[in-house]
């Protein structure tokens, strides 16, 4: 009898420890660890690999304290003060239970544990490291009519998605081995075949740049793999400096001036000739002898 009591106690103890580990994000079943390197300002999605129609119970932990939970279509995010103060509305869950962290800071470095509870419990640990700054805005100055290249400064992979915007207007995009430039009328009217996209690096070149091309250019890069995806945004503030009239414009103005001078000279000549013809001295008319004088002359 005593032996049965000991066995029952051991069984209950094992169950209690197992439940404790499960509730605190630690599981010895199917545990994977994934390293994630980010820059400050990035947004990251930590994937669950769960389909939207699966009714899984998923829990997320950051350094051993729970930050999010989803069961079917019911979700909870940051239910305690500690989580709210740390993340401040920067956490989201999508329909698959994947965790989205926006505007990453260096204080977000640490282990994010994903626990999927079903017939076969799975645990995945994302070891997140945050360094540097990705969203710093760069100021660029260029003279009018020059060609200018905006360089992402990133190593491009084949599955990256790179999208260029000018003041929130989509102007160019690279997806895999496909690229697009100015697919809408507004972009075509503004740039008129003056944009060139380097498919290998993702850099954007603006040819024959104009003062109207001044403004904010934004590049959004999405790096993705099966475990996570990173969204990084780079901003370029471009100022186009007026460089005066071009040589072609100067030549055109000179031709117009020469033609105007020539036309003015011809007009002046015509006016002068006409004025001379009107002011010429008339010849003296023949002297007319009165008829009476002529008769008296014949009488003599």
Automatic annotation (TrEMBL):
Domain Immunoglobulin intervals: 33-131, 137-236
Alphabetical list of InterPro entries matching this protein: Ig-like_dom_sf (IPR036179), Ig-like_fold (IPR013783), Ig_sub (IPR003599), Ig_V-set (IPR013106)
Signal peptide range: 1-28
Keywords, sorted A to Z: Membrane, Signal, Transmembrane, Transmembrane helix
Pfam families given in the database record: Ig_3, V-set
Residues passing through the membrane, by range: 240-273
Full protein name: Immunoglobulin domain-containing protein
């Amino acid at each position: 009898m005593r032996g049965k009591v000991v066995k029952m106690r051991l069984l209950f103890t094992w169950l209690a420890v197992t439940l404790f580990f499960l509730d605190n994000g630690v599981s010895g079943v199917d545990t994977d660890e994934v390293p994630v390197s980010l820059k400050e300002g990035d947004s990251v999605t930590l994937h669950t690999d769960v389909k939207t129609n699966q009714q899984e119970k998923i829990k997320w932990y950051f350094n051993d304290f729970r930050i999010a939970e989803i069961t079917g279509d019911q979700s909870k995010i940051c239910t305690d003060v500690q989580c709210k103060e740390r993340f401040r509305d920067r956490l989201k869950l999508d329909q698959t239970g994947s965790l989205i962290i926006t505007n990453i800071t260096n204080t977000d470095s640490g282990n994010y544990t994903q626990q999927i509870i079903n017939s076969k419990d799975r645990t995945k640990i994302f070891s997140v490291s945050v360094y540097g700054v990705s969203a710093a805005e760069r100021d660029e100055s260029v003279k009018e009519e020059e060609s200018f290249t905006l360089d992402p400064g990133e190593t491009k992979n084949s599955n990256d998605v790179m999208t260029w915007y000018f003041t929130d207007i989509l102007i160019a995009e690279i997806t895999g081995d496909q690229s697009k430039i100015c697919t809408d009328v507004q972009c075509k009217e503004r740039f008129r075949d003056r944009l060139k996209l380097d498919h290998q690096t993702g850099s954007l070149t603006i040819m024959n740049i104009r003062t109207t091309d001044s403004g904010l250019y934004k590049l959004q890069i999405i790096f993705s793999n099966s475990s996570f995806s990173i969204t990084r945004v780079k901003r370029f503030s471009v100022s186009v400096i007026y460089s005066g009239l071009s040589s072609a414009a100067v030549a055109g103005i000179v031709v117009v001036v020469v033609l105007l001078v020539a036309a003015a000279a011809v007009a002046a000549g015509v006016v002068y000739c006409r004025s001379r013809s009107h002011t010429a001295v008339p010849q003296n008319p023949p002297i007319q002898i009165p008829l009476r004088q002529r008769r008296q002359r014949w009488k003599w």
